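S1.2 Input.
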Amino acid sequence: MGKKLFVGSVSWNTTDEGLQKAFEKYGVASATIIKDRMSGRSKGFGFVEINDDAQADLAIQEMNGTELDGRKIIVNEARPPREGGGFNRGGGRGGFSRE
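S1.3 Output.
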């Protein structure tokens, strides 16, 4: 089935290609550094997809805490996205009162 891995604490200089190369021995299907929409700069984390569950588990064990581009990275299984897109849809009025 495969797993999606979260890779955190990534150097601002790490590229998609660099992330893919770091995980290539585990059979990477894709590697993506997440970037800020406005500036285009890295947000300091990314995701790696590995098609084989056993290889993904091995990648977590072997890569978590290792150094990539001068930073110790954090690697674990990605959590599914929250329902609703993560936006607060509360009905609060906030601010101040005009009393």
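S1.4 Remarks. DSSP finds two helices and six strands in the chain.
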